[in-house]
Specification:
about 280 residues, globular, alpha/beta
Length: about 280
């Protein structure tokens, strides 16, 4: 009996150590850049695994690292998918409070997109050690992170784009009447808010390429933060370009539920099972 308890203890300890051993890495270390951007791996067991770069939301000002970061990564890992939670550069809280970017640059576009690109490069260059299939690397984003995921699908060179994208209740447009103004301010910076060309280029529904990767899109009609029309605009744009995608619009669930089993609604929490089915359909 004691031996059995000891073995069970060792098994629990080994699992705990496996999960906690996923130390954040600075994806810019060893490059000429002096940025410090953390990518935290949550590696699934085995080799040749799918990988998902997870971009938490937070209006491009901050990150929801719990519901849209860690909980998402734990869930993906439990499904045999390696997750990499990216703490990309945002404007951060001081910029939200003091608007100092009228006079200094601060963090703004394209900084976060550069971080996604570098994270993809990091994973691909370390794929053997990480047990990753380089042909099966996705980007999943929530809210502003969903907008960032779509930027990666549209603006990165074709050879560096992710295999597919999941945009969960994403910010989509930078144009009235459906723009999420806080995300636009954070992304563009106060000194560039009147730049019409930049607003247009960052409205992802306007620039879906004909070779866009497949997209998994989810939102809720009762979303109180990002107007639900954002996802409808993106769905229409993807449909017009005949891009392979799945759009799920739930009647309830709100915003910011991520992979939290206690947030959103029973309906909206179904996105996770639907996503797992979708990636199997889109394996090729």
């Amino acid at each position: 009996m004691k031996k059995t308890i000891f073995l069970l203890f060792c098994m629990v300890l080994s699992v705990s150590m496996y999960v906690s051993a996923q130390h954040p890495v600075n994806i810019w270390q060893g490059t000429p850049c002096k940025h410090r951007v953390q990518l935290t791996p949550w590696l699934a067991e085995g080799k040749g695994n799918r990988a998902v770069v997870v971009c938490p939301g937070g209006s491009y000002f901050w990150h929801d690292m719990k519901h849209e970061g860690e909980q998402v990564a734990r869930w993906l890992q439990s499904q045999g998918i390696s997750a990499f939670v990216l703490r990309y550069r945002t404007a951060y809280v001081p910029a939200y409070l003091f608007r100092f970017r009228y006079v200094v640059r601060g963090n703004r576009y394209p900084d976060a997109l550069d971080d996604v690109r570098q994270s993809l490069r990091y994973i691909r260059s370390h794929a053997d050690a990480l047990g990753i299939d380089t042909a099966q690397i996705m980007v999943m984003g929530f809210s502003a992170g969903g907008h960032l995921a779509m930027l990666a699908a549209e603006q990165l060179p074709v050879s560096e784009r992710p295999k597919a994208v999941a945009a969960i209740y994403p910010v989509v447009t930078m144009q009235k009447p459906y723009v999420h103004k806080r995300s636009r301010r954070a992304l563009m910076g106060e000194s560039r808010l009147r730049n019409a060309a930049l607003r247009d280029s960052l409205s992802v529904e306007r620039h879906v390429p004909s070779d866009c990767p497949p997209v998994f899109l989810v939102n809720c009609k009762d979303d109180p933060i990002v107007d639900y029309h954002n996802s409808e605009l993106l769905d229409s744009a993807l449909t017009a370009k005949d891009i392979r995608h799945q759009y799920l619009q739930y009647s309830s669930g709100g915003h910011g539920f991520g992979a939290d089993p206690a947030k959103g609604s029973a309906e909206s929490r179904g996105w996770m099972e639907a996503f797992l089915k979708w990636i199997h359909v889109n394996e090729q």
